[in-house]
Amino acid sequence: MTPQLLKKGDTIAILAPAKGIEAEFIDFAVEIIESRGYKTIVSKNCLGQHHYFSGTVKERVEDLQRAIDNDQIKAILCARGGYGCIQVLDRINWADFLEEPKWIIGFSDVTVFHQHLARLGSGSLHASMPLNFKNNTPEALNSLFEGIESGQLSYEWKTEHQNCEGDTEGDVIGGNLAVLTGLVGTKHMPDYQNKLLFIEDVGEHLYAVDRDLYQLSKAGVFDQIRGLIVGGFSGMKDTNPPFGSDLQTIIKSHFTYHSIPIAFDFPAGHIDDNRALIFGKNARLTVNKTAAELIYS
Fold this sequence. Notes:
By secondary structure, the chain is α/β, with parallel strands linked by helices. It is 31% helix and 24% strand. The strands form two sheets. Strands 6-13-12-7-8-9-10 form a seven-stranded mixed beta sheet. A six-stranded mixed beta sheet has the order 2-1-3-4-5-11, with helices on both faces. It starts with 10 loop residues before the first strand and ends with a strand. The relative contact order is 0.15.
């Protein structure tokens, strides 16, 4: 199921399903969204504060449920990540959503929702959030709106690291690597068969990335996917003594016996140039040694 494409005058709800956020980021996002011709609704508890979170679990569930059930709202933009989406996931009644899917937009901890929606068979948008709007590149913000307006995105990019060549296609899936591995073996883990897997992360130790990749590998994920798209892995840390391998070497080591295209340096993740990806939609991935192309069909 692909959510309905948006048109000017439609309403976008902003809510904070996880960590709390300051008003300045929401105000700026509202200005950006409305300048694009949309109406906005800021949820009741979006600017709340309950310890680390924007509200209690009950308050955050109420905000998301209202947005899902409100027929006037055509897209739901998560204000930021952090941690907390998993706390509300099982308390939501998704019945109305399945009747008429809406775009749920975000990245990082919002990967929880992306994975759940993939399991339900619904598309979603991995894209920037209000916390990051001020620092995002124009290309990142443009891709968010292009994704929900046209459903047609295409990218060509150069890579600093040597890719694994190939040409393939499949529905795009994935998100934050740490969140993905946290859902392995749960009822929210989607079917990875014949998918193009996108991964990104921030602030992790190299050994933690290796551990996460082992978990996906041993769960059979790498036996199923047709291609791998590696986004931003910003703020990576090493140990003392050093782990002994860089990020690209670590990733490639898990695909020694899997002959699939691997494209590094896709502009998405915890970086300013965070381009949108439509999850649950078919795309073709073409990769050579120093460049790659991703085109949605």
